[in-house]
Every structure is written in C-alpha cells, then in structure tokens.
Design goal:
alpha+beta; 3-stranded antiparallel beta sheet
C-alpha cells in the first residue's frame, strides 16, 4: 500500500493526490483504500494532508490538515506549504452549489432512488430566479451554462448520455456544503435573492 523500498507508489495514493477517488469509478482502488485506510491516513498526515472518506456515499479525497481550537476548525500551523489549493468561488458557482445541495437534501428526504438527475433546463430554471437581471437574456443563460461546466469540473455534476441535457448530482457536494451550511440554506438563498434584485 505505502511506497515500497523499490520506489513503487500505491495507485491509491496516486489517485488521491490527483483528485477524488470514487467507489463507483475505481472499485478495486476503493477496496484497497478501505483495507489500508489507517496506513493511508498516516502516510498523508506526514505531509500535512487529511483523508476525508465517506463510505456511505462512496468517495474519498484529501484536504489540508485541520485542527480544532475552541470548537472551531483552524488550519494546522506547520512549516509546510499548502498542498491542496483553495479555489475561489464566485457568485454563480457558489449559488449553484447551494441550490444543488438543497435539491439533494430534499431528494434524500423523500427516500427511494439514490441518484438525483436534473435536466439542463431544470438547472437553468432554478438558477435564473437568483441571477441579477441582464438586458440580454441570452447572456444570463450563457453565464448559467458556463457555471454548469465549472461545477462539472469540480465533480459536483456528471453529464449523462450523449445529448448533454441530463446531469447527475455528485454526492461529494455534501462534503462541501455540510450540515451547518444546510441549516443556513434558506438564509443564504434569501441573500442571493436580494442580490439578484440589485441593479447592474
């Protein structure tokens, strides 16, 4: 599992360093990760990284190690460079992430199916309400479509089929928009609504 004296590095470690490891996409690597989870955590802790693994949802990824202070998470102070970069999220991207998380929470509350699939038209419609008014309506749609692509790059949406009109909501979004965020969703959406009402 860990690097061997011969210099070989486990494919599990390589995939985690590259990005998210999904159970569905990499079943063999996933099983290896579960088997050697403790060793993997120890390995990455040396370089200031923390393994986040969700067995129920079937994904794992790395983040900069965190420590708790007075009940709040703070970055571990160590003479190490940041290995996991932070990605700034503008208004449209953060909005879509919040809306998808809310949709997923409602979907899970109903029970039944495990995969939430939305059409492009549904995504455009639910975002449109919160977007600032534009003189050119096509411009708003372009911004939304660009945001959908960015969300796919982050792994929060997965395109289904060849027509590109259906998307599965990635459950990894639950790791970004956590329970605390979920409690504040209505407040956030109200703030987004107010933002959308402002003049350009």
């Amino acid at each position: 599992m860990l690097p061997t004296p011969g210099g070989q590095v486990s494919p599990v470690l390589i995939q985690l360093l590259k990005g998210v490891l999904y159970q569905e996409r990499y079943p063999v690597l996933w099983q290896d990760l579960l088997t050697f989870q403790g060793q993997v955590r120890n390995y990455f802790s040396v370089i200031g990284l923390e393994l986040l693994l969700d067995e129920a949802e079937g994904f794992a990824f790395l983040r900069q190690a965190q420590a708790t202070s007075n009940g709040e998470e703070t970055e571990v102070e160590a003479p190490l460079p940041r290995l996991v970069s932070r990605r700034p999220m503008g208004y449209p991207l953060s909005l879509l992430c919040v809306l998808l998380r809310k949709k997923l929470a409602e979907f899970d509350a109903r029970g039944g199916a495990t995969r939430l699939v939305l059409s492009q038209a549904q995504i455009v419609e639910m975002m449109h309400v919160y977007m600032p008014p534009q003189k050119n309506e096509a411009r708003t749609v372009d911004v939304i479509n660009t945001t959908i692509k960015k969300t796919m790059d982050l792994g929060f949406l997965k395109k289904l089929g060849s027509d590109g009109q259906q998307y599965e909501v990635g459950r990894i979004i639950k790791a970004l928009v956590d329970a605390d965020w979920l409690k504040k969703l209505d407040t956030l959406l109200n703030e987004y609504m107010e933002y959308a009402k402002r003049d350009d």
